[in-house]
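Thread: MADF domain-containing protein, structure

OP (GT): Posting the sequence first so everyone is looking at the same thing. Length is 133 residues per the record. Can we get the structure tokens written out before standup tomorrow? I want them in the notebook alongside the other entries.
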Amino acid sequence: MEWINEKVIVFLEILQTEPCLWDLKPKSFKNRASQNDAWRRIMELLPFKNEIKYLQFTKNETFLIYYKLSNTEETFGIINMRNKRKKMCYEDIKINRSYEDPLELKDNKKKDLKNLMKKYLIPNFYAYFYNSL
């Protein structure tokens, strides 16, 4: 059985409905019987043919799910849930200028800004900037 992205997404959506398997806070997380019941419910809800016999999680590798399809298999298969997308380098981003010249403010806008400075609603620290408009 091959785990393609669509199957992994469906599996994870169903897994989210069973917090006793992934949320450390509730008491049911430590209850083995409630976890087994949750796994049975998940296996019943999977819409595709389910050949998985065993699932295993480890605390150290939170993004990996190990599975076996039969009792005779010696090793577990692995589902890697880590995001494998390539990180974007900032050097690759090219920003084009939208305007060649600075935009002009209308006279009414300038008067309003100066009025706000007189009323000390705009701190004096910004006075140089607003007076240069």
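GT: Both are above now. Quick notes for whoever picks this up: DSSP finds four helices and three strands in the chain. The two ends are 67 Å apart (CA to CA).
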